């Protein structure tokens, strides 16, 4: 099994997580501060090499009723570009509640609001990837 990279793509940041070699668990790696497409993709390419990534799982923030809104369209466009630039497969994963779940987990772990801001995207990426891995192993 090749390692997967989970991405929580936002306007300002990209949360990044990677799977272990067996594809069982997801670990948060970093939050990329978005600067430009070139810089964002350059950093992602470095991480792909570093972790020997074979495919991506990009969070798709559907609306609660299952429809695709502007945020989901932005994520789909990002996924398409990622596939073109890396030649690696990109899987879109419904992530409707991951950011809220990440927030709740951090609050229950008593993480300060300031610290939550810095790790929320990485945590959301971890939950996106873990959800995908769990669904695939069923």
UniProtKB/TrEMBL annotation:
<keyword id="KW-0690">Ribosome biogenesis</keyword>
<keyword id="KW-0378">Hydrolase</keyword>
<dbReference type="GO" id="GO:0004518">
    <property type="term" value="F:nuclease activity"/>
</dbReference>
<protein>
    <recommendedName>
        <fullName>Putative pre-16S rRNA nuclease</fullName>
        <ecNumber>3.1.-.-</ecNumber>
    </recommendedName>
</protein>
<dbReference type="Pfam" id="PF03652">
    <property type="entry name" value="RuvX"/>
</dbReference>
<comment type="similarity">
    <text>Belongs to the YqgF HJR family.</text>
</comment>
<feature type="domain" description="YqgF/RNase H-like">
    <location>
        <begin position="2"/>
        <end position="102"/>
    </location>
</feature>
<dbReference type="GO" id="GO:0000967">
    <property type="term" value="P:rRNA 5'-end processing"/>
</dbReference>
<keyword id="KW-0540">Nuclease</keyword>
<dbReference type="InterPro" id="IPR012337">
    <property type="entry name" value="RNaseH-like_sf"/>
</dbReference>
<dbReference type="GO" id="GO:0016788">
    <property type="term" value="F:hydrolase activity, acting on ester bonds"/>
</dbReference>
<dbReference type="InterPro" id="IPR005227">
    <property type="entry name" value="YqgF"/>
</dbReference>
<keyword id="KW-0963">Cytoplasm</keyword>
<dbReference type="InterPro" id="IPR037027">
    <property type="entry name" value="YqgF/RNaseH-like_dom_sf"/>
</dbReference>
<dbReference type="InterPro" id="IPR006641">
    <property type="entry name" value="YqgF/RNaseH-like_dom"/>
</dbReference>
<comment type="function">
    <text>Could be a nuclease involved in processing of the 5'-end of pre-16S rRNA.</text>
</comment>
<dbReference type="GO" id="GO:0005829">
    <property type="term" value="C:cytosol"/>
</dbReference>
């Amino acid at each position: 099994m090749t390692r997967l990279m989970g991405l929580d793509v936002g306007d300002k940041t990209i949360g990044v997580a990677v799977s272990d070699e067996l594809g069982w668990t997801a670990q948060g790696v970093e939050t990329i501060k978005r600067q430009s497409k070139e810089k964002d993709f350059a950093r992602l390419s470095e991480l792909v090499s570093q972790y020997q990534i074979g495919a991506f799982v990009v969070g798709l923030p559907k609306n609660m009723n299952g429809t695709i809104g502007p945020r989901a369209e932005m994520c789909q466009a990002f996924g398409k570009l990622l596939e073109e630039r890396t030649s690696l497969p990109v899987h879109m994963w419904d992530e409707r509640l991951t950011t809220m779940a990440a927030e709740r987990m951090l609050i229950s772990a008593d993480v300060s609001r300031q610290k939550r801001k810095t790790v929320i995207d990485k945590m959301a990426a971890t939950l996106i990837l873990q959800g995908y891995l769990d669904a695939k192993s069923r």
